[in-house]
Design a protein that fits this description.
By secondary structure, this protein is of the alpha/beta class. It is about 50% helix and about 10% strand.
Amino acid sequence: MLRPSLDDVYKNLSEIDLISTDVFDTLLLRRGTSQRARIAAGETRFARLLKEKGLFVEKAELVRCRLLAQKFAYRALNMGGGVGEVQLSDIIRRQLQLLGLPDDLVGERIAIELSVEKTALRANAWLAALLRQFRQAGTRIVAVSDTALSAAELTVLINHFHGPGLIDRVYSSADAQASKRYGALFSAMLENESVAPSRVLHIGDDDIADFRMPDSMGLRTLHLPKSRLERYASRVDGAKTEAISRLGKQPWRHVPPPPTLSDKVLFGRDIFGPIVAEFCLYIWLYAAQARLGHDTALLFCARGGIGIREAFERVVQKLGLPLDLKRDNIQISRLVAARSAVVLRSPAVLDELGREFQGGSFADVARALGGRAYELPDTWRHIFDPARFFALLDTDAGRDVLDDIRKQNDLFARHLEQISAGAQRIILCDTGFYGSTQRLLSAGFPQQRFETIQFARCNYKGLSEDHFPRVAGLVVEQNLYNPFKPETVILRYWQIIESLFEPALSSVRHFSETAEGAVVSNAGDIRFGVVDPSAGNPLLTGALQYIAQVETGGQVLRDAGSAWLRLKQAIINPSPSDVIALDVGARSVDFGRSDHVQVLNHSQKVALAAKLMSVKSHLWREGAIARDFPRFKPPLLAALEMAHVLRGFSARLYR
């Protein structure tokens, strides 16, 4: 569709009863100041205000907490399908709660926000003159904005630049809990104004929210996009502000000394404690927003989610962070999720099975999914071929396997219904990486809305990323290690994060029903408070000790910056004590199998060349080098680091 010109607008003036205008970058224009720069300016003023009240908080800390509160609020909004909207008052309230500051400062901080906006905006005099002509001709004028500001706050800004009387009514997505981008705010405006879409002209800059969406709803549109120069100026200003902020942090000055010897509890307290607590703050920020848009349940996935839940509940309680949200532990595993996808014959499960059982037989897959051994024809002993699996299930021999899969899936469905209590929005919380559980559950239960928040998200499998819009890596979202982002060091040794959170329990493999009709699994009772995930887990024990003595979220974020640098050092250039502290022993293969693999294989007395070749067989290669090649450790680790750097550079160059 061709976008109308001003001549078209004037020509069809008699056919227009209402004009709606976007606010920011339309009725009010930016001066090239980025959002990051505006936030920094506001927090500078806020820090001075706090100092006057006897509250001393660094500007950098205020900025960090504000950006995090805002980032996770919008992430939760978008992951939930855009239902609802973020409110500035909620963002600021969460920022204050992270820092242990009183809620009654919200109003004063919003006043600062409006003051900063007045210096960063200017009036669009040309558009205001056009709107006044329409108004004089009897056309009603309204402002419609996707924003975290309320209608009252938008009115203050509009009147500051254009004076009162230009706009008859302001519609804010924050007030309506509905956005232009998804059409709901336009629907609310049309209903309140009692006007047909064809009698409305909408003016704005955003291609989706101000042109494509209203056009699809039958509104007339006048698209006024920002110029490339304006967009570039804003990005440059944001980059400059971020660079100045990073230079001011200088985190390398605060790296703590290595923990004494190989004490895993001490390592867990000093290093993993701040990292775990930081992750828990991210979960809280996400969940605090998610609960506003739907009937929502937060479910922590067995097994890693049980340890996450323990740390999360302690952080929430210790810092007094409010969260009125149903939450529970869910009996789930990739195997359980795979059964649901098999029942509905989803191609997604064939990808997963093909990867997990590469080199195995159809009988191996049947035993894992069905939960028992079967008398099967020789065909089932052939090497597993995903393309033939569904056809084999439809044979007489496969009927028993499929029946068992369906029975197990029905029991899991009952368990899911019981713990989610019919919630419309189900948020799974897990360790990570790829989000297989999310992908398979979404395929197996298409009537449910699942999303997953996890420590990290990474497509290490090289499979489809279609489910990634509903999978959030709260700490890391990257496929390759980046030496300039310390958090990505976990991509070099992911097993340490899994081991950190997983209790000494079996993976969920099968369900059964008690005499009372309750659904239970082989993992036993995993309800919060029943299982102690720190038992026999010194790293998590130490992390929980850190949480017990923390005072504010600001302290957590400060400590986490140093902890990540120390963890990076311990993983990519481990000392002998680091090797002992971070060696997690054998890891379960899972997916219905009892096999285990060692993170560090046992050192063998073989020739040097053979020992060098064996480094690839270790899950933590840096640890193996530090243990087995103490004399050659510096050049070998330097070469391995360079290989990772070049791999990342090559991936970015050719993507």
